[in-house]
Fold:
Amino acid sequence: MSETTRDKVSGDALFILQSLKENVRLGRSNKLADVKTSLENSVSLEFDSYFFFLRKFHYIAMDREAQLKLTDPGERVVGGEDGERFGGEISDFFADQIAEGGPPPPPSDDESAYAEPPALPTPPPPPQPATDIILESNPMPLPPNRGGRKPQDDAFPQVTAPEVRSGGSYGAPPPPPPAPMPMPLPLTMTAPSQPSSSSLLGSAQGAQGKGQDLDLRYQKSDQIGSGPLGTVFRGKHNALGLDVCVKELKDIFGYFSFLQRGEVIKRLKKELCAQAQVRHPGIVQILDQNTDVARPYFVMELCRGSLREKLDAANGKGLPVAQAMRYFLQLAYGLRAAHQQGLTHQNLKPENVLFDAWGNAKLADFGLSRVIEVDQSKGMPQVFVGTGGMGYMAPELLARSKEAGPSTDVYGLGILLYEMLTGQLPGRRSPLPSEINSEVPAKLDPIFDKMSQDRRDSRYPDFEAVFEDFYAAFADRTYLQRGDLLLWSELTP
Structure:
């Protein structure tokens, strides 16, 4: 695999600038999404890294429609000017991703890098009196020489003359001066031009890779799922040997064309931190996050399959009633715990219901719908990501009401309950669950009906009210009593 050098990265950045200028001449689109699509396979590193570099140093500008254009500095670089400055900024910005040409720099902790050339042979020293001071044969090594100074100019000069190495006297003739040291090149890391799926997180992440030492704690391997906002990988915590799940959200910015990246990152971090605070068996545990890289990601406990997969495998017939009720109660108690800490989900759907190794239902992706919601005050456009969750959304969510609360999740779980019991989504005049599936207790019908009312004042306000009616209907303790969480403990395949 060829190394990524400064010249190669400089050439890539110049190529992007030239392409933008050529697009203008030919009347082609310079919209960020179009430029990225056409050029991302023609450059050595992630396209996003070049974009951040060119914007940071004002070689390109972008309007509110995500159209890119060259600035005056960008025009000068394309015209062959300011090449030295351009190359220097490339070196600074991509320092952790490029390997400079020429011989590699000396290792900073290698004592031999500063050793002096052998001195000419000298006569053996006379016998030493007992009072002579003998220097140790392993002198203190130099600190790393990063400024191009000669070693003898440092505060702790290296003593390597043969007389001293052999235990000679303090008064022996001094060694000849060392040869001048060349200016050391910056210490760099070589990143692969096309990272593999098993590469360490944080490699080739560009100047955005803050906290890279933390990133190196994890590895990602096989892709195990994908959605409109990102991709899910199986991962491993290196220090603990723990299997984890890594979700990259690189696609989330495509919906905003980078216009509001800062705002999206702020929202994303807020929602991830909020979910991480809720520790409950019914909620997927967030273990870590890094939103300061080109591809933001978070790490969570490894789950095995989703409710969508189970429903698809049932071929439209629904799940066994006992299984569906166990999932319903696990999710209801998980949502109640989240609501008690002020966190609502607002995006309930089968894809966001996952299962642990024992077959217990857990909710994931709290608040991601809020990350991409409209905010005219910040210029955030309205984004509808796919249609998979529309059938589970309460009317107030579809109306983009700011008053969504716990009852919104009550509605969503009511729709999920109906689908788990019957294998289909309810419509306006759909039969009640027990009318479709004779194994469903009729006592569930009014509970489902009240959970899924369009008007909030006719719906259960929260899960405390749901539990009150549920356990009153099943006073025979079919599902134990209020507060008892039903957990499964058989390993699932």
Notes: Confidence is low (pLDDT under 50) at residues 101-120, 128-172, 181-214, 376-387.
